[in-house]
Design a protein that fits this description.
- This protein is mostly helical and about 400 residues long.
- About 70% of the residues lie in helices and about 0% in strands.
- The chain is built from 23 helices and two strands.
- α1 crosses α3, α5 runs antiparallel to α6 and α17 runs parallel beside α22.
- The radius of gyration is 27 Å and the shape is elongated.
Length: about 400
């Protein structure tokens, strides 16, 4: 409870600048104009560092000063809460995120007090619920700052489910030293070891340890028949092989076998197809990359947001003709639709494609889109080589120079 007290004291002082929430005054309270000591600064320092203080009244007084309460009847202090949490973690381990979201909803329905600890757990569980719902581990930075600060107070089953979100938050906010410290705290649970291995690969440190970690985790997840985590490991192995310049053909065959043999959650299939598509794109296997990106879109048209630039580049390199998919088209912005429509035109009708670029794609909103400037220009040059309309190309170049 000490860390919760210190967190809320700090938030209140930052927001109000009220001296009663300043650290040097907080362990006292004003009663009829007289300053009464709740506890000594040393005692306050102990309890905020989770060193137990015998006098429970100190906690209650400090909580009261923050308009918070402790209620021992809360479900979060009972064995059934821990039991439910372990069941949720087990389901999370196998990647069934929809089931995890449903289980969290049922658990939250048992929260019915104003207990301070219950409120903090409700906050983080709602955040995890949203992560499971959208199948994404990038969370609002303000939320993550709170969760990261209070990470140590959460039950271990919640901590395990936060590993990826915490790591992503620290990386995105460039908190290098905190990232290293966070990785150093990880223990032997398979999810913690996966996070540690990913950190080593991502930052290209301790690569000599990766092989042994990978094999140990493969053994664990194979024994569990946990194909979701096995697939995750193989993705990390692909990244590791890329770092060391090791050929990936055999590993890709293994992944493709898993896709066709085992039942995997849709979000897992999308994630790893996306990764494979990017890898094929990087190695100039554009036809394979295009096919994979199209499979991503069949699984979820919303994936277009992530694969758009890669997909268009594959269409460019393979001279592809696509059919309009309403499920995909409806998800696109006006500018994205314009580019998408271009690739529905016959790639051998150079004049029609050239005219379309000049009329529909030569506007600032499109030419300033990430990656689109070079792509549109390459497509126009390709068409002009056949139409010989070099004057139009020069006019186009002059026009976009003004953007």
């Amino acid at each position: 409870m000490g860390k919760i007290i210190e967190y809320h004291r700090n938030v209140l002082f930052a927001g109000t600048k009220d001296k009663q929430y300043a650290k040097e005054y907080f362990s006292s309270r004003l009663v009829q104009g007289e300053l009464i000591t709740i506890c000594s600064p040393t005692t306050y320092r102990k309890l905020t560092n989770d060193i137990p203080v015998k006098n429970e009244d100190i906690y209650l007084e400090l909580l009261r000063k923050l308009n918070l309460t402790y209620q021992s009847t809360s479900i979060v202090y009972k064995k059934e809460f821990t039991k439910s949490g372990m069941q949720i973690l087990e389901t999370y381990m196998y990647g069934d995120y929809d089931a995890v979201a449903s289980m969290i909803t049922h658990l939250l329905a048992t929260f019915n007090t104003n207990d301070a600890y219950e409120k903090e757990l409700a906050y983080v569980l709602r955040m995890i619920h949203e992560m499971m719902r959208v199948k994404h581990s990038i969370v609002d930075a303000t939320q993550m700052e709170c969760v990261y600060t209070l990470y140590d107070i959460y039950p271990q089953w919640i901590q395990k489910m936060l590993l990826t979100a915490i790591y992503n938050y620290l990386i995105i906010t460039h908190q290098t030293h905190k990232t290293e410290d966070f990785i150093d705290t990880l223990q032997d649970h398979p999810l913690e070891q996966v996070s540690r291995m990913y950190y080593y690969i991502d930052n290209q440190v301790h690569l000599d340890k990766v092989d042994a970690m990978y094999q140990k985790l493969m053994d664990v997840f194979t024994k569990q028949k946990n194909y979701y985590r096995l697939l995750e490991l193989k993705e990390y192995r692909l990244k590791y092989n890329n770092v060391l310049g090791i050929a990936n053909e055999a590993l890709i065959d293994e992944i493709e076998y898993m896709f066709t043999t085992y039942e995997l959650p849709n979000h897992a299939r999308k994630s790893y197809l996306y990764f494979l598509g990017k890898m094929y794109n990087r190695t100039a296997s554009y036809e394979k990359a295009k096919t994979i990106f199209e499979e991503c879109l069949r699984l979820d048209p919303n994936m277009m947001t992530y694969i758009l630039s890669y997909y268009f580049y594959c269409l460019h390199k393979t001279d592809s003709l696509i059919q309009v998919d309403p499920m995909v088209y409806d998800k696109l912005s006006e500018q994205q639709r314009a580019i998408y429509t271009y690739f529905t035109l016959d790639p051998k009708d150079y004049g029609k494609r050239e005219d379309y670029i000049l009329k529909e794609l030569s506007c600032p909103k499109i030419m300033k889109m990430e990656y689109m400037h070079d792509l549109v220009l390459k497509e126009l040059r390709k068409n002009v080589r056949m139409t010989k309309h070099y004057v139009k190309l020069e006019q186009f170049l002059s026009k976009i120079d003004e953007f």
